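Write out the 3D structure for:
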Amino acid sequence: MKKSYLVLGLLALVIAATMGYVRWDRQQTKKMQDAVLERVGNATAALSVGLKPEAGPAAQSQVLNDAAQSADADLAAVRSMPAGRILLLGGAAAEYLDTTRELLKRRAKILLLGNVVGHGIHQFRDHMLNKRGASNWTSEAVRLKNALEENFRDYQRTIEAHTKLSGGMAGAYKRFDGLAPAGRLVSLTGIAVVRDQAIAMEKEMAANMEALRYMLAPR
């Protein structure tokens, strides 16, 4: 009889220890999942700032680049977590953070290059219209145009990459179905608006570039 009590007691201890471990394991998993969602929220806040620029191109670009570095650190942290604890949430967060980081970097570059190209257009037009008669007028016109063309090509490539990443955000968004509150994620409508604004600006600059090329074309 005493032996059976001892066995039952040991069994009860094993069950209690197992249940305790299960509770602890669940708590650890919950903490890790909360940490992942917090990093996702950080990325969303950074993107929201990027969608509503409140400073000049240089200052806003710096804000976005700093946010991209933060997103990169968050991505590294998520990737270092035990995959078994965060499961599908970890994969969704990694894709979201990666896309966010690259969007922030492209958005920062668009702001800077847009400013550079806009200044180059103004400078080239001024040279063509107001600097005629200078001994180096032709060589300077060619120099200005070549620099402008190079910057504009870089600008177009950045717009193209930004457009693709904007579309890719929808895929990252879908991976969160049932895994995160909608408020944790950036507005896809806001992403689309910024994308369309960037495309419209690129088209406007492309039209200006064509007009400038015509000015330098031989008659």
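The CA atoms of residues 128 and 192 lie 37 Å apart.
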